[in-house]
Amino acid sequence: MGSAKITSDFESYTLRRVGVLPFSEINKDPMAAHEVGAIETSFHSEFAAATPYDLVPLRAQDLAELLPPDPFREGWYAPATLRTLRERFRLDAILVGTITSRRVVVPQVLGVQLDLVSCETGQTIWSADLQLDASSEETREAIDSWAHGQLGEEHGAKMTLLSPKKFASFAAYQMARLL
Question: At residue 56, what are phi and psi to the nearest 5 degrees?
């Protein structure tokens, strides 16, 4: 359902502690902060289950004097920010999420881009992109398979198509399997 790129030397990196920055959103909707929080929670849960990393969720307060990286617009990560995060939280890497599209009414849409950035080198060592559209037959079939296999629910697919939280969980599950 998504695509990912991994660096050829990925295995040479020692990754134990990975900081998860608050997700940014391209088209910010101030009324939807709780929805973005639900997406972050879903991604944290799925990545914690699917990867061997100790995930450290970072809050806006943790980054108060730092300018969080905005890779979508800037195209790079500030070395000083990465060094500070590495030292302060003993991180090996950071996971940076950007919500590229979102519609919470039926048919739902969710687009997410994730970058895993080494705090040692500042290089993006894994990057993934996912675009889900519930009006797509491919998305609906994948949700049906996931709902039956992962949730064990007969009506889970219908609920996922209606619930933004479950839709985000499905998206997170798909992306976590790419790492």
Answer: -115, 100
Residue 101 belongs to domain with CATH number: 3.40.50.10070
Q: Which amino acid does the sequence have at 49?
A: A
How far apart, in whole angstroms, are the C-alpha atoms of residue 174 and residue 171? Answer: 5
The answer to whether position 144 is within a domain reads: no
Q: Which amino acid is at 133?
A: D
pLDDT(10) > 60: yes
Mean pLDDT rounded to a whole number for the chain: 88
Dump pLDDT digits (tens) for 75-98. 667 788 888 999 999 999 999 999
Q: Does 140 fall in a domain?
A: no
Our count of domains for the chain comes to: 1
From residue 21, alpha-carbon distances to 65, 84, 106, 171 in Å are 14, 13, 29, 18
Tell me whether residue 105 is in a domain: yes
